[in-house]
Amino acid sequence: METLIVYYSKTGNTEKIAKLLAKELKAELFRIEEKKAGGLISAYFFGALGKKESEIKQLPDLSKYALICIGTPIWYWGPAPTINTFIKQGTFEGKKIVLFTTYMNVVGNGIEKIKTALKEKGAEIIAEEKFRFRFGSEERKVKIFGKIINEKIREKK
After folding, report:
1. Torsion angles phi and psi, residue 34, rounded to 5
2. pTM for the complete prediction?
């Protein structure tokens, strides 16, 4: 199954998980980038203010992928605005979706917001995971998550 991992990462935590997961799933990677990238403080500030979207440089072509994994940090109980823009502009009808989030302290309901938006666009969520970055590597957890995803893919065939 052709698989793409689309992610946004400001500090590198989400990117680390995306790369580990790509290795487990033998997937291609696409990093979403903002048109006007601000600093970390402004990103958290706008997240706290509830900024819903931000302009992105380019959308990936999703047409050839049956499985799309989407990764985002959670800022102030919600997904990064760039991921909201990607979901709003992307075409997900009939796609199988895996979601993963990274967070430091409070996870909130960010993954639920993403699930709702994707389901409204005709996507099927097959797996989700939250990765907390605090003390060390998440490599073992990513390997287990990769195995779970592969099992779910086999079940769906």
Report:
1. -75, 150
2. 0.84
**Of the CATH numbers 3.40.50.360, 3.90.650.10, 3.10.180.10, 3.40.50.2000, which one belongs to the domain with range 3-156?**
3.40.50.360
3-state secondary structure 82-103: HHHHHHHHCCCCCCEEEEEEEE
33: tokens are: 């980038």
State phi, psi for 108 to the nearest 5 degrees. Answer: 60, -155
Which residues are paired to 4 by β-bridges?
A: 28, 68
8-state DSSP, 63: T
Distance CA 91, CA 75 (A): 24
- Report d(CA 121, CA 80) in Å as an integer: 19
Contact (Cβ atoms closer than 8 angstroms) between residue 57 and residue 35: yes
Asked if 7 and 14 count as a contact pair (C-beta separation under 8 A), the reply is: yes
18-63 pLDDT per residue, tens: 999 999 999 999 999 887 655 555 555 555 444 565 667 778 899 9
DSSP-assigned letter for residue 57: S
Pairing, β 78-79 against β 124-132: unpaired
